[in-house]
Please model this.
Amino acid sequence: MTRHGDRVASLRTEIAVLPAVDDRARRSQSAFVAALDHLARPFDEHADPTHVTASAIVRSEAGVLLHRHKRLGLWLQPGGHIDPGEAPPQAAVREVAEETGLDAAHTSDPPRIVHVDVHPGGRGHTHLDVRYLLWALAVPPRPPTNESQDVAWFTLADAIAIADPGLRGFLLSLGGHGHRST
Model:
């Protein structure tokens, strides 16, 4: 099997055993796997309007890190397209650094997918987003000037209250039913 085929098989396996936190997650998991069957180059944003992206739910002692997306105006986790030759877990870490100025690390070794979401990505694209749980030090974000400056740590309850619906179900699964994060 090729490296590309190995990555697709690995994604398929991880998504198959991923607990669905809500109906949206269940629908996303099914749509994600179905899309993988039809994509020649699923990690290449230029190959097809539907492609895999990677993002990170970043936790710290300060809470959950969110940023307000510049174009969409939504509070989201850091994430984006996967660079050529890059694996999705690496892309999630890189996107955190690029969008927030923070260093973050995976909470498991090897990194594992904790959530997926299928959603419109703008420009007629559909993003098959794989999400990883990362940990960072509770320091103030320092986003570069070309990125959204609206980046902050939120308690889990506050993150749930403002997060995009595609993220909210996973945050609720972390135990944030009105409780402060630690």
About this structure: The helical segments are 3-17, 23-36, 88-100, 156-162, 165-173. The chain has five helices and eight strands. The mean pLDDT is 91.
